Amino acid sequence: MTTTSSTARTPMRTSRRRARGRQRWIGWAFVGPFMAVFALVLVAPVVYSIGLSLFREQLVGGTAFVGLENYGTALADPKFWEALGRVVLFLVVQVPIMLGIALVASLAIDSARLFASSFFRISIFLPYAVPAVVATLMWGFMYGTRFGLIGNLNDAFGIELPAPLSGSWVLASIGNIVTWEFVGYNMLIFYAALRVIPTDLYEAAALDGAGAFRIIRNIKIPAIRGAIVIAGIFSVIGSFQLFNEPNILKSIAPNAISTYFTPNMYAYNLSFSGQQFNYSAAIAIIMGLVTAVIAYVVQLSGSRKEAVR
Amino acid sequence: MTTRSTIRRWAGVAVAAALAGSLAACATPSGGSEQGSASAEEIAAALQKESSITVWGWAPQLEPIVEAFEEKYPKIDVKLENVGTGNDHYTKLQNAIKAGTGAPDVAQVEYYALPQFALSGAFADLTGFGADELEDQYTASTWGSVSIDGGVYALPQDSGPMAMFYRADVFEKLGLEVPTTWDEYIAAGQAIHAADPNAYITNDVGDAGFTTSMIWQAGGQPYAVENGTDVTIDFADEGSTKWADTWNQLVENELVAPISSWSDEWYQGLGDGSIATLVIGAWMPGNLESGVPDAAGKWRVAPMPTYEEGVAAAAENGGGGDAVLEQSKNKLVAYGFLEFLNGPEGAAIHAANGGFPSTVADLESEDFLGYESDYFGGQKINEVLVQASKDVVPGWSYLPFQTYANSIYGDTVGQSYANASDLNEGLAAWQEASVQYGIDQGFTVNGK
Amino acid sequence: MTTEATVTEAITTARGTERRAGSRQPRLHRSVRRGSTVQRRSILLTIVMGLLALYALLPLFWLLVNSTKTQRALFSSFGLWFSGDFALWDNIVQTLTYHDGEFVRWFGNTLLYVVVGAGGATLLATLAGYALAKYDFPGRRAVFAVVLGAVAVPGTALAVPTFLMFSQLGLTNTPWAIILPSLISPFGLYLIWVYASDAVPSELLEAARIDGSGEFRTFFTVSLRLLAPGFVTVLLFTIVATWNNYFLPLIMLSESTWYPLTVGLNSWNAQATTAGGEAIYHLVITGSLLTIVPIVVAFLFLQRYWQSGLAAGSVKQ
């Protein structure tokens, strides 16, 4: 009897132990497929990039290990700094404007004081569905001073609008395209956050006689700070990675958009038209680090304010 | 794809990532050298066996030529791919060469880009297949463009001797003589713009190909290459300065329309006469006919204006040929195709489809010279254009990294255009950037 | 009831709860609040928002108007109104048949990339995000750190090494070169992770385990249904991302056979701006319109699913 019971117990115990072991590793069965593809399409290229950035390959003379030399060159490269400065300017001007408009729009829709508010929600969001390539082609046509919309307006009103694709305006014109594409998207993020603010907070404030603007300032905005930070981080990353819009516009504004207009364009042109793969990789890695640090700072400052509150 | 080969490939990635640098090193083109030469009989035999080749090109004439080739050699399957025009094409070509796989067997290449691919060993030297015996078939200037360092790296297809296309109606209306010198050209430019502030003698926002061709005509030789790696870049030579000083008078006074060539606005300007002339390659008539059909009968062609009255001078603008890739595993058929494409049969189809030939026989045929173009009001345009091909100033060469140099033109000379300032400064900046690149890439560069 | 906003709400709710773990706030039904505070509607505010809507819609209107014009009328008529001839049908037919109908082929390619790429990305992100939320396994923290860290590296910067690697593997010029990279959605992973930790009660999983259900069976029969709103949200974002994908196909594909619409359209546009090319701006514009229509329709169509999915999700909560 005892024998049977002991033999009966043993397999049960082991199977449970095995189950617990399997339990411990079962997560990997779920994560595995993602991580495998991830390793192939993201980790391997990053590692490869780091490797590339330590070498120098020349059209004449072959390949040599140069250590961190490419990084030194990049940090002393005025073109790199000019490109970086341009996206920082873009970031400082365009991102607040875009997020500001998005915030106002979301508050307006949330306020229940609009006629046809669902129409506004959908129509302002619609440009997000337009591929960046199509958006840029479209705006590029409209920016034309002769046969584009700008030209039409000039003719119709006998005015002389500044040429959107001239050197001094082209960054603003790109900012306009990006704002157009993403203002609705950010608006929806804010709006969704506003919708989950508990009603009792409002009611209490309204009973205290707080006006609409005080409610916005003291309740609504603090409550969606998290969403604002997230939107901010995505916009920062987006600005640093600016590429499609200027690269497509370059074909119609070759003198206004240089080959090093943004850091990403610089890296692209270095490798694809200049064959300087190694230097290009170094610039890419630097930009990755800069982006990560700035996104982290935005997140940190956002959450600190929240903690203070 | 079997599982095992997949695993091996994945393992390959890991190794590739780990040995990052060495991978880049071994990506230089290799293989196929055993096919570096063949007799005419061997090539003819290869064309009778089942095989296929891939051709990358964007010239509209390629399609009918490929059809004719496949009809003549039914066992050969030619896959024609348009991977982009000009720079996009070269970028993709360069990528495939860098990657060591994926390049076509035959690629279209413009003369300016050829040295880059020839000197880096990406294109096969065709002398081993007997290409050097074809010299007499082609004009001197195009043959000069494809023979580099004692090798032949492409066969010429079309050529672009420059001429001046102009709107006869605009000159007539203003009572202007058709300019024969650049001084007269500038004077006409002032008159046209004075009569109508929306009208210009020509458009120009800066274009590397145009600039180099104009310097070529002025007798400048800013680029010199010896032994493939000793490079001289000098945009302060007499010819370059002569062009820049002349063209400055138009650019600094904003007498050229700020319209990019090939843009919608450009076609519009060519159609309504607000762009009165085009100094451009001889392949232009077909483009005018298809792009600006409304202006039929209004355009004429004349020799390019010159610096000295009565001393004819021209340059090549655009045009190119086709090359066999070193990566190709089917070089005999590729070369066989090239001989068809760029030989008499291909050239005839090319010319019939609006191309401007580089073959002497076609250029001098009665039919070709005597052709009266309805679009040009019955003018025998080819007489003018063929004469231009004979007036091309000899001695020009491009850089072994010309596609890169051209890609940074907008950053440098383009800025002079954007600011309507001295072109000499822009050229100096272009020189500096090109020299720097050459040094970075290991060339011995003399910047002067 | 709200439309796409409801979907994004899922994100923010999930994120909000994650951040303020402990002080979890109840999700409130909007109708309650609407009922309690009756607001005056403001004409001024509506006008201001009208201007913003005009800004958003004007370019789309421009696109619609100009896709009805012939190549010639494009340059000779006012951009914001129709010209004499209404050539929309002609243009559509030309767009679909130009160059042996390559547009249709590109359209099919794009659909393939969206179905396999976005679908696969959503599935992988859901599996992985769910595991991060619900299983404690060795290396869990490392997984998350690596994924987040890699997001900051600019995608275009990785283009060259990815291209070189893929050509070694013989993947360039095949659909896999587009599909494989789009299978990864770190944002989707993050979203599912925060969503799952809230929406799938651990007690439920424990109960399923006691019933003897395998982990994968539990996932597909129980958890996935609870995750539906998050799943659909991720699907939306990945669909948009793959539909808009431009840069990667641009460098990975050298031959037009496998182009998606974005790259194809730009090649049409580039063709007109280079020597010897035929100007087909009217087709570029009509093609752009045709490119936008399906994704706008998909947006509106998928909304219903999100709505019901969300409703179900909030009841279960």
Detailed description of the structure:
The complex is a heterotrimer of chains A (309), B (448) and C (317). Chain A contains 13 helices and 2 strands; from the N terminus they run αββαααααααααααα. Chain A has 309 residues and is mainly α. Chain A folds into 2 domains: 2-53; 72-308, MetI-like fold. In chain A, strands 1-2 form a two-stranded antiparallel sheet. In chain A, a hairpin with a 3-residue loop joins β1 and β2 (62-65). In chain A, α2 (69-75) crosses α13 and α3 (78-110) packs antiparallel against α10 (225-240). The longest helix of chain A has 52 residues, at 2-53. In chain A, 51% of the residues are buried. Residues 1-18 of chain A have low confidence and may be disordered. Chain B has 448 residues and is an alpha/beta fold. Chain B has 2 domains: 33-159 and 318-363, Periplasmic binding protein-like II (D-Maltodextrin-Binding Protein, domain 2), CATH 3.40.190.10; 162-315 and 386-446, D-Maltodextrin-Binding Protein, domain 2 (3-Layer(aba) Sandwich), CATH 3.40.190.10. Chain B contains 21 helices and 13 strands. Chain B has helices spanning 3-18, 20-26, 40-46, 62-72, 87-99, 114-119, 140-146, 168-173, 182-195, 208-217, 238-251, 264-272, 284-291, 331-342, 344-352, 360-363, 366-370, 381-390, 402-407, 409-419, 423-440, and strands spanning 51-56, 76-81, 106-110, 147-148, 151-152, 155-156, 162-167, 223-226, 230-233, 277-281, 299-303, 320-324, 444-446. In chain B, strands 2-1-3-12-6 form a 5-stranded mixed β-sheet, with helices on both faces. A 3-stranded antiparallel β-sheet of chain B has the order 10-7-11. In chain B, a hairpin with a 2-residue loop joins β4 (147-148) and β5. The longest helix of chain B has 18 residues, at 423-440. Chain B is globular, with a radius of gyration of 23 Å. The relative contact order of chain B is 0.17. Residues 1-33 of chain B have low confidence and may be disordered. Chain C is mainly α and 317 residues long. Chain C folds into 2 domains: 4-23 and 87-316, Orthogonal Bundle (MetI-like fold); 41-86, no CATH class. Chain C has helices at 4-19, 30-36, 43-66, 71-76, 88-134, 140-151, 159-168, 176-182, 186-199, 202-210, 215-244, 247-252, 261-272, 281-316. In chain C, α1 crosses α14. Chains in contact: A-B, A-C, B-C. Chain A binds chain B through residues 40, 44, 47-48, 50-52, 54-55, 57-63, 65, 144, 146-147, 166-167, 250, 252, 254-260, 269, 272-278, and chain B through 10, 13-14, 16-25, 87, 91, 94-95, 98, 120, 205-206, 229, 259-260, 263-265, 268, 400-401, 403-404, 407-408, 410-411, 414-415, 417-418, 437, 440-443.
